[in-house]
Each structure stands twice: as C-alpha cells, then as structure tokens.
C-alpha cells in the first residue's frame, strides 16, 4: 500500500530510506534528513512491513514536514525491493540513499548537489564514518573513478537520468555493490567531497552482522550479474582489471573471512564454493597486477584463503586484532 504520495513538481534531490526494525534509530536518521540545508529536496521513507513502531515515527515526520518527507508502506520484501519501489516515485534530479539506522550531516546533500552541478558529474561521492560501541572508524574514498571503490550506495548521489532501468537485485545481500558498479561503469564523470558526511551505525542486528553463512553465496550471484552486464555492454577490456580486484577483495578476503568466523555445519562447503568461483576466473590471481595493489597483510590473507588455509588466516586476523587493541 502507498501512503502520502501526491502530485509533486520536480525536485533537486530525492533521498530514499528503507525501513525495517530500526525504531530505536529512525528518529535520529529522519531528523538529519528533515533538517538538510538543501531546498527542493524530498525524503521518501519506505516502511518495508516493519513489525515495530517505526511507522508511528514516519507518521510524525510526514505530518511535521509534509513538503519534504513522504511515506510509503509495503509488504516485507527486503531492502532492495523497498528502494526499487521508491525509485518509481522519486522526482529528484539526483537520487541518494540513507539506511534507516544511519544519519548524515545536515549540509551533506546541499554540498554534494552543488558539487554535481559545478562539475557536471553523474555521481558524487563523500567520505564516511563507521560508529561502533567504543570507537569510530573514518573511511576515505580515494581514486573514486574505479569500480572497486564501490561498496555502499549511501555515500553517493546518482543522476536519475543515468539510473534508467537499473535496479537493485531483490532477495540478495550485496545489492549495493551490484547497483553501484553498474552505474559506475556507465559514467566517466565522478566528483568527490572530502568531508565525512555519512555516519553508519555498526550494530549486531544489521545485515552484514547476520550469522547466515549461506547468504554469503549471494556475492557469487551478484558478481555473475556484474560479469554478464560487462559482457553485454562490451566493457570487459575497460573494467576487467577492476573486476579481478573486486573478486579478490569481496570474495577471497571478506566473504571467506566472514564465513570462517561463523558456526555453520556447511561452512567448509560454502568456503570451497566461494574460493572455486574466484579460481575459475583467476587461477593465478597471486601473480596478477590487481593482487599486487593490496596491502601485504591482505595479500597474505587472500593467498591463504585461496589455497584453502582459511583457518590459518583466521588465526592471523585474531592476532592482528589483539595487537591493534593493545
């Protein structure tokens, strides 16, 4: 069911917020968006069948900010389906995304929108911060023109005309990577803001902290979709190098490390499937240029995981964490 949608004129920017079980964090998120300094901006909040009290908070903001905040309600279908629904209604010249448990600085979207206009950019990227219980990690986006720097869509704005028919794959993890990489492959004009505008809350209930080992195999579905898209648009030569980098980073390092930490009777089978997927494309990855761009400790982890020695890499990661924490 759709609520609060009415005829609206074109906007400078649409920000899409999917909502599911984020009641304790949603108010802070929506306050940061309602108070944005950018004028002619809309916030489309999609209640993805959330069973908690999130809708009450959404109702408050649509009542208090009727010209800015719009609410949609739908049956639960996952974050990707919520974002895709909002894309149907978005009136913005540019599109941004914010997760319902995160928040942003109030000048974020004005700064990024103005940067898009001044540099005639299709995509603008800013820096981010990860908030943990006892510390904050600052992330800088360097070399923004390369596909391998695309993790989240939430620190970016995209020109709506460029998005076209590209949508988030539904029912999968890592939908951000699939959506973002396809759009990055379409443009040469990307602008960059040095400020750390986006605040990501790292919490146990979030998708990436989920203990479902099999869902890590979604990365293979996403990578296959990206490979097919590259073939279809004759982009293999242009982005093949970046594709190898992404497979090493997201599969050999990140996904295998995550699964090895989880308790699942099938985890060895899952890890083997992840490893074999990369080796099918890059059997000698450790000799390739893309591999050599990683830091030394990352190269060690990738090689260990690539040769089935993930238990040893898990020990090395444990030691590294102990040393870094003093």
Tell me what the structure shows.
It is a single chain. The protein is an alpha/beta fold and 326 residues long. The protein has two domains: 11-207, Spore Coat Polysaccharide Biosynthesis Protein SpsA, Chain A; 211-324. The chain has twelve helices and nine strands. The chain has helices at 23-34, 54-64, 79-89, 108-119, 160-163, 175-184, 218-232, 236-260, 267-281, 289-292, 296-306, 310-324; strands spanning 11-19, 41-48, 69-74, 92-97, 103-104, 123-131, 136-139, 156-159, 190-201. Strands 1, 2, 3, 4, 5, 6, 7, 8 and 9 form a nine-stranded mixed sheet that branches. The termini are far apart. The mean pLDDT is 91.
Based on the model shown, name its key terms:
326 residues; alpha/beta; Spore Coat Polysaccharide Biosynthesis Protein SpsA, Chain A; 2 domains; 9-stranded mixed beta sheet; 12 helices; 9 strands; globular
Can I get a quick summary?
The protein is 44% helix and 18% strand.
| CATH superfamily label of the largest domain | Spore Coat Polysaccharide Biosynthesis Protein SpsA, Chain A
Tally of distinct domains: 2
Form type:
globular
CATH domain topology of the largest domain: Spore Coat Polysaccharide Biosynthesis Protein SpsA, Chain A
Gap between N and C termini: 52 Å
Low-confidence stretches: none
CATH architecture of the largest domain: Alpha-Beta Complex
Query: How many beta-strand segments?
Result: 9
* Average pLDDT figure: 91
Residue fraction in strands? 15-25%
Quickly count the helices: 12
């Amino acid at each position: 069911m759709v609520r609060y949608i009415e005829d609206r004129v074109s906007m400078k920017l649409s920000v899409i917020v999917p909502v599911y079980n984020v009641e304790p964090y949603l108010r802070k998120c929506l306050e940061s968006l309602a108070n944005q300094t950018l004028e002619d901006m809309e916030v489309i909040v999609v209640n993805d069948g959330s069973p908690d009290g999130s809708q009450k908070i959404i109702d408050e903001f649509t009542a208090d900010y009727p010209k800015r905040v719009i609410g949609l309600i739908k049956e639960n279908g996952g974050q990707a389906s919520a974002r895709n629904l909002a894309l149907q209604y978005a009136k913005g010249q540019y599109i941004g995304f914010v997760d319902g448990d995160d928040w942003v600085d109030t000048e974020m979207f004005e700064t990024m929108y103005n940067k898009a206009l001044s540099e005639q950019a299709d995509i603008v990227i800013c820096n981010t911060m990860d908030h943990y219980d006892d510390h904050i990690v600052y992330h800088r986006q360097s070399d923004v023109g390369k596909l391998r720097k695309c993790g989240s869509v939430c620190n970016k704005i995209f020109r709506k005309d460029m998005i076209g028919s590209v949508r988030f794959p539904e029912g999968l993890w890592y939908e951000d990577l699939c959506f973002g990489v396809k759009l990055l492959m379409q443009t040469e004009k990307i602008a960059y803001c040095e400020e750390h505008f986006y605040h990501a809350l790292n919490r146990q209930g979030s998708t990436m902290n989920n203990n479902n080992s099999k869902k890590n195999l979604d990365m293979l579905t996403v990578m296959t979709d990206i490979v097919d898209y590259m073939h279809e648009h004759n982009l293999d030569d242009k982005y093949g190098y970046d594709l190898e980098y992404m497979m090493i980073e997201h599969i050999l390092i990140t996904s295998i490390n995550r699964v090895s930490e989880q308790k699942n009777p099938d985890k060895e089978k899952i890890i083997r499937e992840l490893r074999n997927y990369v080796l099918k494309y890059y059997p000698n990855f450790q000799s390739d240029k893309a591999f050599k761009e990683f830091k030394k400790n990352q190269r060690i982890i990738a090689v260990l995981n690539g040769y089935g020695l993930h238990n040893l890499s898990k020990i090395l990661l444990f030691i590294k964490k102990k040393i870094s924490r003093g």
